[in-house]
Design a protein that fits this description.
The chain is mostly beta strands. It is built from no helices and 17 strands. The strands form 4 sheets. Strands 1-3-5-7-10-13-16 form a 7-stranded parallel β-sheet, with no helix packed on it. The chain has a 5-stranded parallel β-sheet with strand order 6-9-12-15-17, with no helix packed on it. A 3-stranded parallel β-sheet has the order 8-11-14, with no helix packed on it. 37% of the residues are buried.
Length: 171
């Protein structure tokens, strides 16, 4: 999937295709109501941007199935509905905006930006849960870009098990 391309997933359940995803490509998931999709393992660097906006979602049955850890090279945006990562680790190279619900169960969210002089952000007014409201299971920050400004935390949540600051800063 080339830079600027879009894959629009307008169905309940189904499979998100694998392949070579450019960091500037986008997956829009909008049709989930009761069954989360399966995400085929991408080749090379991972997926581009992932937008989850499932306004008709009534349940979040099962975690999204994908190779763990999965890499989102760009942004992870949850506008509506519940994205459930289960026990799978997810690495995000861009920003995380949560205005829906992110369920991390036993997974770890890793902010792994590599761009020089860029601050990644975690923001939004949504719900974080690992079975307990307001709780993210784990967070890792490993910003390796030259002059990286780290991660700006612009929302509230607790971290239940693990916080790792490998490289970069949390502000």
């Amino acid at each position: 999937f080339a830079a600027g391309s879009f894959y629009n997933h307008l169905m309940n359940g189904g499979t998100i295709p694998g392949g070579n995803w450019n960091a500037a490509s986008t997956i829009n998931i909008t049709g989930i109501t009761t069954t989360n999709p399966t995400m085929t393992a991408p080749f090379a660097a991972g997926y581009g941007n992932l937008n989850w906006s499932c306004t008709g979602q009534t349940t979040a049955t099962g975690a999204i199935a994908y190779a763990s850890p999965s890499i989102i090279q760009g942004n992870l945006v949850v506008d509506a509905g519940t994205i459930n990562f289960g026990a799978n680790a997810i690495n995000v190279g861009g920003n995380v905006i949560n205005n829906g619900t992110i369920n991390s169960a036993t997974s770890i969210l890793a902010m792994t930006g590599t761009a020089a002089n860029v601050t990644q952000t975690i923001s939004g007014s949504g719900v974080w849960t690992n079975g307990n409201l307001g709780v993210l299971n784990g967070l890792t920050i490993n910003n390796t870009g030259t002059g990286s400004a780290g991660v700006a935390l612009n929302c509230n949540f607790a971290i239940q098990t693990t916080f790792n600051l490998t490289s970069g800063i949390l502000s």
